[in-house]
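re the bet — no i am not wrong, look at it urself. input seq straight from the record:
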Amino acid sequence: MNSPWTLATHLLQHSLTVNGNSIPKQPIKCFYGKRAPSISILDYLKRIQTYAMCSDACIVVALIYIERLERKTGRIWLNALSTHRYFKAACIRLVITALVLAIKLLEDKYYDNNYYAKVGGVSCRELNGMELRLVEELEYELQVTQEEYREYLNRQAIACVGNAEI
């Protein structure tokens, strides 16, 4: 995996441990699937990297969106419960949704939502709904400045190195 994807893998793994069993407050229902995914979150990231065909910056921006969502809503999305059933489904669905938004923001050429829905294991209708809901929850603040991007990467790299995860 390329460096930002490796960092994303470690961040997701670390978040699942650090956030413990915190249960999201007032869950955003569109992110909760009807069935538990059979794939691990880390394997899911590898799948997305293989088939989404996007720049490394996209996964970083997607993680920034998830962090913004947590700050704005007070909900913790990535925690130990994400490895179980509906929480895992919500985490996986949130990752693909945030990544699709990042791809659309950063890439000159990208696939339609039907393709990303297949990659993400959701229906196109679900992805469309989740995308709209995430944009609304982020209050349409999708732009990430170079300074914010670098600061996020540096902060996360320091946290991972401090925890001997990289």
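see?? The CA atoms of residues 93 and 121 lie 9 Å apart. told u. also DSSP finds seven helices and no strands in the chain. so pay up
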